[in-house]
Design goal:
Shape: globular
Order of helices and strands: EEEEEEEEEEEEEEE
Strand content: over 45%
CATH topology: Neuraminidase
Oligomer: single chain
CATH class: Mainly Beta
Length: 133
């Protein structure tokens, strides 16, 4: 990702690095909530970094200085159940002009939609929109 003439990149089992300061990660790899395990997507929106972390089955949110703020999403249970806001194999995410975040899950064959604060809105699967009240 390119931001303000800098490049951010992930090194497996090390963390997220900035090209301007490649000696220390700006976000550590690890098992803590403030760490990343396997980021598969990221973007910058309204002064925050959003990382889709397939290792944690979550979207993790950091401020512009890479301080951990919050996360949303959980792993689908082994017996299935409610899939709203849960991931099995998240592979990509984007946002639109309304600042809705779309997360593609290849195992669940669905796209889940959240607002920028991580509130689940609805999902799309097999040509239907299912809205959560």
């Amino acid at each position: 990702m390119v931001l303000d003439n800098d490049i951010l990149y992930f090194v497996k089992e090390k963390g997220v690095f900035s090209k301007k300061n490649s000696s220390n990660p700006v976000i550590q790899y690890g098992n803590l909530e403030s760490n990343l395990k396997n980021p598969v997507g990221m973007f910058y929106l309204d002064g925050k970094f959003y990382f889709l972390d397939a290792g944690f089955y979550k979207v993790k949110v950091f401020d512009k200085d890479f301080k951990y703020l919050s996360s949303f999403g959980y792993k689908v249970g082994i017996f299935g159940g409610d899939k709203d806001g849960r991931f099995s194999n998240p592979v990509s995410m984007i946002y639109d002009h309304n600042q809705k975040i779309y997360v593609l899950d290849s195992k669940l064959n669905m796209i889940q939609v959240f607002n920028k604060d991580g509130i689940f809105l609805f999902y799309r699967s097999k040509h239907y929109f299912i809205y959560k009240n």
